[in-house]
Amino acid sequence: MSARSGLNCDILIVGAGLAGASLACALRDSRMKVAVIESEAPPAGGASWDQRIYALSPASTEFLDELGIWKSIARNRIEAVRAMRIFGDDGASRLEFSAYQCAVERLATIAEEGEVRRSLWAALQGARNVTLLCPAAASEISWGADSCEARLSNGEIVTARLVVAADGMHSAVRRAAGIDARIEPAGQRGVVANFACSVPHRGVAHQWFRDDGVMAWLPLPGQVFSMVWSTDEIHADELMQCEESGLCERVFAAGGGVLGNLSVLGGPAAFPLSWLSVPRRVGERLALIGDAAHVVHPLAGQGVNLGLGDARELALQLRTANDRGADAGELLALRKFERARAEAILAMRIATKGLKGLFEARGAAISRFRNIGLNLTDRAAVLKNMLARHAMG
Ligand SMILES: Cc1cc2nc3c(=O)[nH]c(=O)nc-3n(C[C@H](O)[C@H](O)[C@H](O)COP(=O)(O)OP(=O)(O)OC[C@H]3O[C@@H](n4cnc5c(N)ncnc54)[C@H](O)[C@@H]3O)c2cc1C
Question: pLDDT at residue 351 above 80?
Fold first, then answer.
């Protein structure tokens, strides 16, 4: 698709990652005219597994199901998480959640970024009220009293009543709006790789809080899992420079060999990790969603779930305002959206910062404290259920 000139719409979404594309999908078939600008189309699917694998919460899959796209994702590309085992750094402490204990069918569903993104895009292609402009980048954005205007990199102009920044962590829309984001580097990178394993994982996700960072294994269909090792720069470099056999040995040893022998299927790749927060997520004719509004450490695997939650809530508020005849950029509706999302965003920020700090702190006393904490939580059924339910929200 190529950019059209002089487009006038109600809502302009900049960025069609999972947050922006799901918002556009949630506004399909409304009375609002929506334009989506995206600089890169999703890569075509292939037989190999994506590098970016997500643990989608039940709330996220429910949202994707409401949008009608969940059923279009091939069942042999997703895996249910039936249990989660978390290990402390003393080799003995552990915490286990299971879907059975929580009386749910699954704790989460593992899916590939590319598969979800392609399904969202396919749904947008046929939407009568959505124009997808790709490849096109928003280079300049300005706000007036009644509308906002985006100039695309090819010089064409899109005018809208509301602009939604869904353009990721380094959001150009956020910068154009003069919102200063606070970026706190975690001093770590996330090293990701996919492995085949000789022992079936049976839908169990594993996570180890170790001296050298946090390593998570997310189950994929068959005897395959995706690893994210959040670790300091030096260790990340070492992992990235390993031969395949050396990487398998290190990952095998760090996981205590729980899934048997390993072979590398894809990767490794490394991503810098940081937290990002903003003083406000809405303004005159502006809303920020997804990583443009908040970035959390991936140790809780919740970044994309927060973004999908934003999209769902913003769509709800925009549709409600539209039903009563309000302007799409009405600040009242935007403020309702901001308030509704505040708690989930703050809670995830506090939880990921707290966990990272707790497991990074050195010293025998604090080590005993955190490992005892894991064991006690494992035995306290009520607290464990509360934690599991919060993670599933
Ligand atoms: C190592 C790692 C592991 C992770 N693991 C998990 C996990 O297990 N679970 C989880 O929930 N989250 C995880 N995350 C976080 C997750 O990847 C992000 O939260 C999520 O991708 C954010 O989605 P988004 O749509 O907000 O932004 P993005 O995915 O960054 O999408 C932004 C889009 O905007 C487009 N764009 C940017 N600028 C412009 C412009 N000027 N004009 C037009 N288009 C533009 C980009 O091309 C892009 O498509 C992980 C992150 C990392 C780094």
Answer: no
Residue 125 predicted with pLDDT over 80: yes
DSSP secondary structure of 219-288: EETTTEEEEEEEEEHHHHHHHHHS-HHHHHHHHHHHTTTTT-SEEEEEEEEEEEEEEEE-S-SEETTEEE
Q: Note the pTM of the prediction, 2 decimals.
A: 0.92
Atom of ligand 1 nearest to the CA of 56: 11
User: Which domains, from first to last, does the chain contain?
Assistant: 7-44+115-183+276-354 (3.50.50.60), 53-112+187-274+362-392 (3.30.9.10)
CB 294 within 8 A of CB 277: yes
Q: What does the pLDDT look like over 364-385, one tens digit per residue?
A: 665 666 666 556 556 655 555 6
The reply to whether ligand 1 has any atom less than 6 angstroms from the CB of 190 is: yes
CA of residue 14 to ligand 1 center, whole Å: 13
Structure tokens at 257: 């060999």
Helix (H, G, I), strand (E, B) or coil at 24: helix
pLDDT in tens, 78-104: 999 999 998 987 767 788 889 988 888
| Whether the CB of 37 sits within 6 Å of ligand 1 | yes
Atom of ligand 1 nearest to the CA of 190: 1
Record the tokens describing residue 289, joined without a space.
């969603």
> Does residue 18 line the site of ligand 1, with CB under 6 A?
yes
Express each pLDDT in 278-310 by its tens digit.
999 999 999 999 999 999 887 777 789 999 999
Amino acid at 292: A
> Who's near 214: CB < 8 A, 6+ residues apart?
207, 208, 229, 230, 231, 299, 356, 359
Q: What's the pLDDT at 2?
A: 41
Q: Measured from the CB, is residue 290 less than 6 Å from ligand 1?
A: yes
372 vs 290: CA distance, rounded Å: 35
Determine the Cα–Cα distance for residues 217 and 377; give it in Å rounded to an integer.
21
pLDDT computed for residue 96 by the predictor: 86
